[in-house]
Amino acid sequence: MQLVDTSVWVHALRPGGNEAVRAALRPLIISGEVAVTEWILLELMTGLRTTERKDTLLRWFEPIGRLDFDFVDQWGKTWETAAKLRRRGVSPTAADCLIATVAMEHRVALIHCDADFEAMRRALPLRTQDWTGYLDG
Which CATH number belongs to the domain containing residue 125 in this structure? Predict the structure, then answer.
C-alpha cells in the first residue's frame, strides 16, 4: 500500500491534468495499491471548482483505501513531527506534517509532487516516491 498525496491527485483528476501522472497512477489504483486519508479528501474538497460536486468526488474515491488517523493518539505524534522538523530547519505546512505522520505510522511510502516532502524525508523516517519529475515533461 502507498499513500497518495493531494499534490498527485490534483494532477491526476483535473481535466487537462498531467498525463504522465495519470499513467503512473492508473495501474496502482487498479491493483488496489493506493490509499488516501480523510485529510487528503478534505484538501481535495477545498479545491473543488464551482462546477464540481462533493458527491461525485467522494464516489470516485469509494474504491480507494483509507489510512486511519487516530486523532487522540496521533496528534501528539504529529506535533512531535512538526517540532522535530522545525529544529532541523524544515518548515512544512501543518497538513504536510499530518500526512507524513500518517504515512510513517502506517509504514507506507508517500507518493507526492511536493518538494516539501523530500525535505521532510531527510529529517524523518519517511519513505517517499517523488513524482515531480513527471511534471517536467
Answer: 3.40.50.1010
